[in-house]
């Protein structure tokens, strides 16, 4: 999604990183699959390094062959991110939340806050 129209008429634009009105949703029923999967795949990678036998690992992640360690771990995390973690946007005008139905869908469901003054829920607490 690079641009989406909100019900209020405002345009929600996503063309850069660190968008203050964008988030990523981890569904509780997917949480264990995501974290266990990442831990398992990173562990398998480490074991392949320690045993100097990367064939099993390369069979699962052939596109990561030849990458440095950071890029390998990043690639593993990204694989789960792209599969399981939908996007969520907040309209800066009306505060409405738009949640992607699932990671493969282009459809979003909207939720309007009970108090129209509630805005900025997706802004980082680390940057304030
Ligand atoms: Zn709106």
Describe the structure.
This is Transposase. It comes from Nostoc piscinale CENA21. This protein is α+β, with helices and mostly antiparallel strands and 128 residues long. The protein has two domains: 28-84, no CATH class; 88-122, no CATH class. It contains three helices and six strands; from the N terminus they run βββαααβββ. The protein has helices at residues 28-50, 55-60, 69-84; strands spanning 3-5, 11-13, 22-24, 87-90, 97-100, 108-111. The strands form two sheets. It has a four-stranded antiparallel β-sheet with strand order 3-4-5-6, with no helix packed on it. A two-stranded antiparallel sheet has the order 1-2. The longest helix has 23 residues, at 28-50. The radius of gyration is 19 Å and the shape is elongated. The two termini are 26 Å apart. The model has no long low-confidence stretch (mean pLDDT 92). Zinc ion binds at residues 6, 8, 10, 91, 93-94, 96.
